[in-house]
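step: validate -> pass
step: tokenize input -> pass
step: predict -> running
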Amino acid sequence: MSSSESVSNEKVYFDFHRKRFQRFDQFLDKIAVSDAKNFHVLEIGSHYLHTSLLLAGRGFQVDAMDVEEFWNLDFVKARGKKFGLNPIIENDISRLERFSDIFDRYDLVVFTEIMEHITFNPIQFWKTIYQILKPGGQIYISTPNAFALPNYVRNLKNTLFLKSIGITVGDILAKVTYGHHWKEYSPNEVRAYFALLSSDFEVEIHPYHYKVYDLKPPYLMFKLLSKLGNMTKTFADDIEVIVRLKQKTGWSIKEPEY
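step: predict -> pass
step: emit ->
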């Protein structure tokens, strides 16, 4: 991909996610930080560094982690250097082995728009996050709502007509591996998810939406359903998840074995 194509893709990405970034910035407003220079953040999936820049702009120490496809982009490297970000290239987040000897380093872990893309058993991943997060630290997650009205209606239609359940064959074949939403979660599933990992996690969930659609073709029905769903909490497009690590009394679950 050329440099100009990458920059163009970044602009499209930023415009699409603009309101999500604004919401994250509002979350940061609520964090009480007495010493920003000693407030350590790990962003997993830093992409074009939009979120990392919001963090660095508040004086936080930011480790920005993503695959080499992003960190090899010249403008991403230049941006990270300009704003004092610590680049971490990680092409396999399933084990996070580089953090094996790190304990209680981070005050905040940011994990936005990634949970739905996970294709591996996540127990070791979250165990490592538990290890590197300070007691009292937080994990900020944004992810699509499994009950978003357009998808809910589509899944119901596909089931009734015996076409498919879950991700479609067309979706599987049309995208790279990490492009798919392999598993989207409902708020109740997210609560159950973290309860199974450790009783030390406390979960707060807020349904919301950040996408803005013009109510005109193409995909007019999808857009209308999205607008209707976002008038509710149950069928809103997305969920914001704030996970607090109250204390560290023990990890609750072991990885399954073959």
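step: describe -> Residues 206 and 240 are 5 Å apart (CA to CA).
step: cleanup -> pass
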